[in-house]
Every structure is written in C-alpha cells, then in structure tokens.
Design goal:
The complex is a heterodimer of chains A (115) and B (111).
Chain A (H helix, E strand, L loop, with lengths): L3 E4 L2 E4 L5 E7 L6 E7 L6 E7 L5 E2 L8 E7 L2 E6 L8 E8 L6 E3 L3 E5 L1
Parallel strand pairs in A: 2-11
Antiparallel strand pairs in A: 1-3, 3-8, 4-5, 4-9, 5-6, 7-8, 9-10, 9-11
Chain B lengths: L8 E5 L4 E6 L7 E8 L6 E6 L4 E2 L4 E4 L5 E6 L8 E9 L12 E6 L1
Parallel strand pairs in B: 1-9
Antiparallel strand pairs in B: 2-7, 3-4, 3-8, 5-6, 6-7, 8-9
Classes of the chains: A mainly beta (115), B mainly beta (111).
Chain lengths: 115, 111
C-alpha cells in the first residue's frame, strides 16, 4: 500500500519554542492531508485538513495561529506548533488518501514533549 | 457521519478467531463501514471497508447485517501482534477522507 512518513518521530523542546513536523507521501501525490492529535489513552482528534496550494481548514476549537499548516507540494505537508507549551505535548499523526476508495494512509506519528 | 458504538475492550486467545462488533444504527444509504486499527504508539492502519456485502481480504473479514445497522470484524486466527485498538467508522466515500475516530475497542490477544 501507499506510504506516508513523518519526521521527526519524536521531539523534545523547551516551552516557548516552535516545532515543525513534516508529513510526506512517499510514493503518491496527495492534494489533501489530515493532521490528528492524540493524547494518552484517548482517541485521535482531527485538527485540520491540509490543502495543497491553499489554506488549511481547521476543526472547531483548533487555533490556526498556534498550529501552522503548510502544504507546499503534492508530497509534503508541515505542521508547526508555535510557542509550544507543556499542554501541547501529544502524539501528532498525519494521513493522506490515495485513490477513491476512501482508504487513508497514516504516518508513524510524531511524539512531541514540551518541557 | 453516523455514530458507532463499540465495546471498550475485548480479550481473545491466540490462534482463535477474534470477533469485534460495531453498532451503527443510524447509518445512511451512501455510508460505508471502515475498520482501522492502531497498535500502541503507531499511526492507524487500514483494515477493510464495505457497503452492504460481506468483504474479505488478507487481514480480516467484514460481516455487515442485512439492515446494515451493525457489523462484525473477524480476525480469523488472532496472533499476539493483533493486540491493538480497533476503530469502526461509518462514512461516505467522500467523507471517509476526513475520518472522525470514536473510542474504539481495545483488543488484547492472550497467549
């Protein structure tokens, strides 16, 4: 199946700094990618839809100025957590659809820890 | 998208069939049933999906009731590596790209 890769797989940063997470579709093009966040022992929560060449669409309650999304090419979307705080510590996961079956391919996830 | 209800947890013995139920009584005519699973600290993995006919692939079988209000995911010969959280999601093909995850079923395969 299609491969979606995230980088870094884990990152530790100081409070107040910004962290960028990359999501790449390795063997297909993705005009749309999705970003999820998952806290311990909870389900995945959709944060935003990343659209190639246009602005991202954010879910209700997700601050667009806090979580900057850039989808500059058909194979890369980035999520930047700006001015990170400990409550932003979470598992961030991206996904991308391939084909028209509705199947989503997910990245391995990126675990962010803010000290 | 229609809401789904799954048991929070299940256990199954290694080598036996694992049957995971899902209720989706408000499913509409154009909505599919999708199953994904998430092994600890990894991204979710697609398993199978179906509309109204039963489906089978190399990973699992999906049995959908005739009224489409419920379904069962069957792992025919569960292994320890099948221990994961299994999510049943109902969505249209168009909406399936933007999946909304419920709490899922935490399946534990016991040796």
């Amino acid at each position: 199946g299609a491969v979606v890769s995230q980088h870094p797989s884990w990152v530790i940063c100081k409070s107040g700094t910004s962290v960028k997470i990359e999501c790449r579709s390795l063997d297909f093009q993705a005009t749309t990618m999705f970003w999820y966040r998952q806290f311990p022992k909870q389900s995945l929560m959709l944060m935003a839809t990343s659209n190639e060449g246009s602005k991202a669409t954010y879910e209700q309650g997700v601050e667009k100025d806090k979580f900057l999304i850039n989808h500059a090419s058909l194979t890369l979307s980035t999520l930047t957590v700006t001015s990170a705080h400990p409550e932003d510590s979470s598992f961030y996961i991206c996904s991308a659809p391939q084909g028209n079956t509705g199947e989503l391919f997910f990245g391995e996830g990126s675990r962010l820890t803010v000290l | 998208d229609a809401k789904t209800t799954q048991p929070p947890s299940m256990d199954c013995a290694e080598g036996r069939a694992a049957n995971l139920p899902c209720n989706h009584s408000t499913i509409s005519g154009n909505e599919y049933v999708y199953w994904y699973r998430q092994i600890h600290s990894q991204g979710p993995q697609y398993i199978i999906h179906g509309l109204k006919n039963n489906e089978t692939n190399e990973m699992a079988s999906l049995i959908i009731t005739e009224d489409r209000k419920s379904s069962t995911l069957i792992l025919p010969h569960a292994t320890l590596r099948d221990t994961a959280v299994y999510y049943c999601i109902v969505s249209s093909i168009q909406g399936a790209q933007k999946l909304v995850f419920g709490q899922g079923t935490r399946l534990t395969i016991n040796p």
